[in-house]
């Protein structure tokens, strides 16, 4: 599922494939954009802000999209597969980028991109991250001390980039359950570890929170309902809901 690291890697991949090259094909399959023709414009680069993606073109024009739960961009060197799920096709000589199941597609001036992301908290993968960004993320995280940590981690207005997998794994690393109040954790450590995990995985093809490269050992508890906790081997509790949660009762303290 797309989280901040996935969107960051997508921006990097699109920039690497199309950056600085003039578009020879541009097909936007969205009701509001179907008549727009970007052919002939130079693809400048793609940038990510949390889970938001901006594709920038010559002439100070940007295409904004959100990957949602199932969206993706793929780059092909041969004939690309175009399906009913395809929302955008951008081609340059020898390469074609295909965007499937994209959400919230919109064209806007590059200078106006901030209007769509100003509500977000500090972007954990911001290349210009500073101590001020860290302090602001801590301030937002602790604004409601009684709030459940897992809920706060998923709130993109607190800090941008954490999705459900990182929520689960961060809580495990902190040794608390996702329902633990924010007041009972070290907020400074939460922000530092969240950024560290996303940076570690920003350009990795396979998400890994354990540091163990062996197959089946990349995550501590997420998705390990059958295998058990990677640390203690005990049972992992699976809690269904809008955002499924996993935790280890042995390794994590707090409400369940």
Describe the structure concisely for a colleague.
By secondary structure, the chain is α+β, with helices and mostly antiparallel strands.
Describe the structure in your own words.
α3 (131-141) crosses α6. The chain is α+β, with helices and mostly antiparallel strands and 256 residues long. The strands form three sheets. It has a five-stranded antiparallel sheet. The protein has a four-stranded antiparallel sheet with strand order 2-7-8-6, covered by helices on one side. The longest helix is centred in the N-terminal third of the chain and has 15 residues, at 4-18. It has helices at residues 4-18, 114-117, 131-141, 149-154, 164-173, 187-201; strands spanning 21-22, 25-28, 42-49, 52-57, 61-66, 72-76, 86-92, 95-100, 103-109, 237-239, 245-247. It is globular, with a radius of gyration of 20 Å. It contains six helices and eleven strands.
Radius of gyration using CA atoms only:
20 Å
| First and last CA, distance | 24 Å
Helical percent range?
10-25%
Shape: globular
The strand count comes to 11
Task: Work out the helix count.
Answer: 6
Could you give the order of strands across the largest sheet?
1-3-4-5-9
Strand content: 15-25%
Order of secondary-structure elements? HEEEEEEEEEHHHHHEE
Unreliable residue runs:
none
Structural class: alpha+beta
Largest sheet: 5 strands, antiparallel
What's the pLDDT, averaged over the residues? 96
Give structural attributes.
about 260 residues, alpha+beta, 5-stranded antiparallel sheet, 4-stranded antiparallel sheet, 6 helices, 11 strands, about 25% helix
């Amino acid at each position: 599922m797309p989280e901040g690291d996935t969107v960051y890697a997508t921006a990097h991949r699109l920039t690497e494939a199309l950056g600085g090259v003039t578009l020879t094909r541009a097909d936007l399959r969205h009701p509001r954009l179907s008549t727009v023709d970007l052919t002939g414009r130079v693809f400048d680069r793609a940038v990510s802000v949390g889970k938001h993606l901006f594709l920038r073109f010559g002439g100070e024009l940007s295409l904004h999209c959100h990957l949602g739960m199932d969206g993706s961009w793929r780059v092909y060197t041969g004939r690309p597969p175009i399906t009913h799920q395809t929302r955008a096709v951008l081609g340059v000589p020898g390469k074609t980028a295909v965007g499937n199941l994209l959400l919230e597609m919109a064209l806007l001036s590059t200078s106006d991109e901030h209007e769509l992301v100003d509500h977000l908290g500090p972007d954990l993968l911001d290349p210009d991250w500073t101590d001020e960004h860290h302090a602001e993320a801590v301030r937002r995280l602790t604004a409601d001390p009684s709030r459940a940590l897992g809920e706060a981690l998923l709130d993109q207005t607190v800090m941008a980039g954490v999705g459900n997998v990182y929520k689960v794994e961060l809580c495990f690393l902190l040794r608390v359950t996702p329902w633990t109040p924010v007041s009972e954790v070290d907020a400074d450590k939460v922000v530092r570890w969240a950024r560290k995990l996303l940076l570690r995985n920003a350009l990795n093809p396979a998400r890994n929170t354990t540091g163990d490269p062996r197959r089946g050992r990349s995550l501590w508890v997420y998705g390990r309902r059958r295998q058990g906790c990677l640390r203690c081997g005990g049972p992992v509790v699976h809690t269904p809901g809008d955002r499924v949660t996993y935790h280890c009762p042995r390794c994590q303290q707090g409400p369940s």
